[in-house]
From TrEMBL:
UniProt name for this protein: SET domain-containing protein
Domain of life of the source: Eukaryota
Keywords: Signal
SUPFAM superfamilies reported in the protein's UniProt record: SET domain
Keyword Membrane part of the UniProt annotation: no
Domain (SET): residue spans on this chain: 36-185
Signal peptide: 1-18
PANTHER family cross-referenced by the UniProt entry: SET DOMAIN-CONTAINING PROTEIN 5 (PTHR47332)
InterPro entries: SET_dom, SET_dom_sf, SET_domain_protein
Length: 342
């Protein structure tokens, strides 16, 4: 019993970070390895792509990049292209402050022009086609912009406000020579809806998920839409209150079963950006039926997965999962003690 608790408790230690002379982040305490884990080269049908120069393991940092252009955009509306016309002056001012080499790097990026746009307004098109949100702002990251889209991406990314950098890391093993991919859009939509959302970038996706045969693609579409509905259905249930009525307990057991199916479908689709949320749901769902072992293991899995993006467990989400796992360890430990005295 104590061995189980001790074993689980060791999972909360901060992961060791190996530092060497090859560390390429300056003025930082983070050691993020060699910059030679990727190279940019032609990608068939996609212009330039980014390829792994060695095996990259889950959690490995691929890119840590400050914004070359950083501006405050108009109010964001999900699925609607930014209307950057209102901030053209800010965009041009930021661009004018760059060095000639930086300007050339920016202007070499893909620029999708809509039929209504001025053909001379390339800078605006580059910004709209390549920028990422950074909190309440908008940043252009020329190196990261070379990573092409996939509906089953091999990387995830987050904005680190403390470092002022966008961090791109592997969410699964990436083989040497494999093209590295990211996502430009939310992924819990059908193939047709995803393609429609990608129109703003001027291409049709031909990734592994989009290239499936008709029947397999329909099954994938159904899973993604079911996942979207499941996340919405579980959202109001994310409390640790245990139902007391017979009917309530019956529903809670069904939800626990459904939470495992949610995880399985998500992993089958390879949508790693949603894993932490799904593991959290599974932990809560099992806690509500007082099944402490799987509840603890799911919570810990969520915490471990959150560490891929947040190795020092600084984010609110990582701290919440760490606290939840500690709470569930206590519950599981108490159950083991009770069973031992029977």
């Amino acid at each position: 019993m104590l061995t189980i608790v001790a074993l689980l408790s060791t999972l909360f230690a901060s992961p060791a970070i190996s530092c060497s002379d090859s560390s390429w982040i300056t003025n930082s305490q983070l050691c993020l390895g060699s910059p030679q884990v990727w190279e940019a080269r032609p990608s068939p049908g996609k212009g330039i792509g980014v390829y792994a120069t060695r095996v990259i393991e889950p959690g490995d940092t691929i890119l840590s990049e400050p914004a070359m252009i950083h501006i405050t955009p108009p109010e964001f509306r999900d699925g609607v292209p930014y209307l950057l016309g209102d901030i053209n002056t800010l965009l041009q001012s930021s661009f004018d402050a760059l060095s000639p080499q930086q300007k050339a790097e920016v202007m070499s990026l893909h620029a999708h022009m809509s039929p209504t746009e001025d053909a001379n307004d390339t800078l605006m098109a580059i910004m709209r086609s390549n920028a990422y949100t950074t909190g309440n702002s908008l940043g252009l990251f020329p190196k990261g912009a070379r990573i092409n889209h996939s509906c089953r991406p091999s990387t995830s990314q987050y904005w680190n406000p403390q470092l002022g950098r966008r961090i791109v890391y592997a969410n699964r093993r990436i083989e040497e020579g494999e093209e590295i991919s990211a996502t430009y859009i939310p992924l819990l939509y059908s193939h047709k809806a995803r393609q429609r959302r990608l129109d703003q970038y001027g291409f049709k996706c031909t990734c592994e998920a989009c290239a499936l045969e008709h029947g397999a693609r329909q099954a994938s579409d159904q899973r993604r839409q079911d996942l979207q509905k499941a996340f919405a259905a579980f959202e109001p249930q994310l409390t640790l209150s245990v139902p007391q009525s017979v009917a309530g307990k019956r529903k809670a057991r069904k939800r626990a079963e459904a939470s495992v199916q949610l995880v399985e479908q998500l992993e089958e689709e390879g949508l790693a950006d949603y894993y932490v949320k799904a593991y959290h749901i599974a932990a809560i769902a099992h806690a509500k039926i007082e099944d402490w072992k799987p509840a603890t293991l799911w919570a810990n899995k969520g915490f471990e997965t959150s560490l891929l993006a947040d190795p020092n467990a600084l984010s609110a989400g990582a701290r919440e999962l760490q606290a939840l796992t500690n709470h569930l360890i206590i519950k599981w430990n108490a159950e083991l003690r009770e069973n031992a005295t029977r």
